[in-house]
Here is the input.
Amino acid sequence: MGVVEKIKEIEEEMARTQKNKATEYHLGLLKAKLARYRQQLLEPTTKSGPAGTDSTFRKGRILCRRSLLHCSNVLANCSGDARVALIGFPSVGKSTLLSKLTHTQSEAAAYEFTTLTAIPGVIEYKGARIQLLDLPGIVEGASQGRGRGRQVVSTAKTADVILIMLDATKSDEQRRLLEHELDAVGIRLNKSKPDVVFKKRTTGGITFNTTVKLTKTDEKTIRTILAGYKLHNCDVMIREDITTDEFIDVLIGNRKYVPCIYVYNKIDSISLEQVDKIARTPQSLVISCEMGLNLDYLVSRIWEELAMVKVYTKKRGAHPDLDDPVCLRKGSTIETVCNTIHRSLAPNFRYALVWGKSSKFSPHAQKVSLAHAVQDEDVVSIFTK
Here is the structure.
């Protein structure tokens, strides 16, 4: 029996099993097995295989058997400060949205599977270059490899924000199916990493501690899951009321927690009451690509979800360069600024002067080290040895 068949068998058994207090333990074991098989499906143990039988998408570069040269040339000019991935079923308007926001020509037509390769474009916004990646339309069962979907869905792991594009004229089932496919490859939408400390040891057995009362799982289930993964010596500290699934995510360790915006297209084809209802749904946004409705607001929402920090550089005795900011992720330090400008700055670093919100003496400068965290619109002057 292959891995896909085993996954299907476990999913069917879980669907048959009633969810109550008596079956929690059994369901926990099934979930652990399911996660293990899905991991095998996504990361096969055998590395050998016929060359050129699949498509691989990588951050900064896209490899595709049919259009390797084209994609490499496009991405060479489309590197950005952040990446946003467009995910959706065929013919929901992803290619049209890419063309409208980035002025990149992506083939759009009224039939399915128009886009067969990943098409990148760049959004210029507030001095930042945001790479928008139009991925081929996926189908149900994509996480198990159907329609080359495993590669397409897994590419979303490289994104800083995911846009799930939906057809406003269709049912909410499309949203549920897409969430399921992303969840199956280890992408957790609009969730934060569980507050769990897990450490492997060589001896000493299992040390289990909690700082909160567990209402969604229990110690017996967790110990059985650890045994299923052949983890007999480790420390477990749980600091929030987690579920069995969240604990399995911590064990596997390769889960990606990505902010997501649900973009409903074709609102010009539904009633105002339906538009209002969708717009009030959390993390949802309504647009019309054909009529150009609400696209500016979509870009501003992407910027908010990216939570980027703009830092301006200043040479000694000169005014700050306000035309070319350094765009970084929230929580970045002076060391990140140095590495972004040039890799030789950090090894030869002496100190930096910072003006702005992160300076203790604002509006005056503060002398800081590499570990100093910068804030939005700081001005930084770096001094080397």
Remarks:
- The radius of gyration is 24 Å.
- Residues 45-77, 109-115 have pLDDT under 50 and may be disordered.
